[in-house]
Fold these 2 entries.
Entry 1:
Amino acid sequence: MAALIDYSKLYSDGLPDPAAKWAPFPKYYFVGGNNDPEEIPIEGLVEAAASVLRREGSKLAIYNLGMGPQGYPNLRQFVADKSRAQRGIPASIDDIVITTGSGQGLDMISRLLVNPGDTVLCEEFCYQGALNRFRKLGAKIEGMKLDGDGIVIDALAQQLADLKAKGITPKFIYTIPTIQNPTASILPLDRRHGLIKLARDYNVAIFEDECYADLLWEGVEAPPALYALDPGCVIHLGSFSKCLAPALRLGYIIAEWEIMRRLLPLKGDSGTGALDQMIVAEYFSKNFNQHLGHLNGVLHDKLKAMVEAVEREFGASAECWAPKGGIFLWIKLPEGIDTRKLMKPAAEAGIIFNEGPAWAVSPHNSSNHLRLCFAMPSKQVIRDGVAAFAQVCYEQTGIPLRSANVQRA
Ligand SMILES: Cc1ncc(COP(=O)(O)O)c(C=O)c1O
């Protein structure tokens, strides 16, 4: 057999680090935006698939179903209807492109806007995937201060003024205003108006990521999307990963045509999977509200199980941010604990979690934080996993003090 070509000498410059071999999930897997396997509406999707395939299946013979690069019109119509009803967004289907997960949308918008050296403002605790993308394109990231209601507008006003004094105009503000990742807060209406005013005053664009906006606890109301308040200032991103299934890889961007026409050439594939789009449009155009109401009830129950477990196992040593929806809990441990140092011993005990600095602009105010995702594991796995994690934490740091805990069962 001929010798293998030495590919390692042929690779292009600037490649990412090589991938590790995939390993099955450990027992206590508290990372990743996964959904609850019990909540995939299998029979409904089967029926939807049969009906849409019988009606329109022959169109699969043609790239983009012969309907253009923005995606299956019925799915765009569903996105337009849902965005109008629930987020106040007055978009037509021409303002919408379906993407291969909202991750592809993030790539497209980042590529559209970021030049090396640009300053980008992100919430001080922020989705790692967005931070990584902006950094990869050479952006300098500045953190915006957060409290339990999201971006602190007075602090942002001061920050923008300070940047201006140094001659810096940030390119855009990246924000997750409705169920922020990782703090799960909702930005109130007055702050939304304040944010838009600042963006207008300083000529800074807003990139709004509403990946989790469907996942609200019963009785929780979210103000209109930033896009609804000022479409000329905002590019809006959404996803079907969290309200239905991340493995489907469906997301969307809403933007005015002048921006959309520059985004579309950046899509870089020959269309997002059309069968997935057809099935989801068929299913959700009849069942969305009912599906979501049930899913949110299940997720809220799991959150309660997790918060109870954290309180029981960590006592006063853990402070939880109070989620208003979503699939994750952001937890602060006492000063001096570095959650990065807990990763390895936790993994040895079968526990995977997100350490704070990976979900933050700076390690300085996040190294004692961590994120736990609760949608995929069962309530019993949540209880056992949090107990196992508290044990690891105690062995490594002496915290939580066992006496600080309420009585153990
Ligand atoms: C805030 C945010 N935006 C975007 C994404 C990308 O999700 P997807 O590509 O599955 O739509 C995620 C994933 O967890 C996220 O948390």
Entry 2:
Amino acid sequence: MSSYIDLKFINLLSSRLSKFKRKNDNLFNFRCPHCGDSQKNKSKARAYFYRVKNDMFFKCHNCGMGQNLSNFIKFIDVKLYDEYILERYKGSSPSTPKPIFDIIKKPVFKEVNFIEELTSIAELSDKHPAKKYIIKRKIPEKFFDILLFAPEFMSLVNSVKPNTFPNTKGEHPRLIIPFYDTTGNLFAFQGRAFGNEQPKYLTIKLDETKEKIYGLERINFQKHIYITEGPIDSLFIDNCLAAAGADLILKVKPSDVTYIFDNEPRNKEIVKRMYKIIEKNYNLFIWPDEIQSKDVNDLIITGKTIAEIQTIISTNTHTGLSALTKLNTWKKCNI
Ligand SMILES: [Zn+2]
């Protein structure tokens, strides 16, 4: 009930908030009116409205400011605040006013300033090797601001998680892919090597309790959800998460989820996971034999468009017995 009023007032405020974007039904992102957000990058928006139970809250990941929606409205517009209070109390008996100023449970936010310090791919010159790499992989430009460049990856990791690397011998640059949860809170980041450095992908968790699932801050849980293994692959598919190896505990029906694994019929681990997906009644994409690409990004690089990929996925998606039959003939290993 109260959430309806909160959403109504967020809507009323939206035109006054710079770079305002609805991320999903309960998450909104914009530039922070308290601190003015990143001065270095005018396109960066680090402030969010997010939901806790029936109420909406404000949080800025740049200045750390956090408050309930009521106080945020008061800061922006006192008149609108009066209307908000009136609506919130309307219908409830005067003797039992609802405690709207109580913050029910304040989520713990980590300092994410180190991410703010990094240069995004969007900010790099087209001649920069990291940007050239991203362009070569045909990653959609709309994601250039959520992919970052770390010139000294090992030092960066050590500054966030001391002693991850005992020394920084072999220091090298990496692409940084930040993992945010549904409230826009950074909980992990992945460093992808540009060269032959091993491991090719290294994910650093800032919150050990969270599963390594990428893209949660952008997903619309009311729509069909796709899940790839790699974060980069997920950027080519609409409403897509990446969850390499993570056990996905989503409160969605299996029929509303399609898994897309890499094209590795000889990889026992992957084939095993595909069987598990079928068992749990999820939809499973099985690569058609005529396609040799090893993953979604590879398919894009060989010239397929995003629309063509969407068609390939939908025409080769199976569930239950039909998925089982397909998988049995597709796999090239003994499982
Ligand atoms: Zn702020």
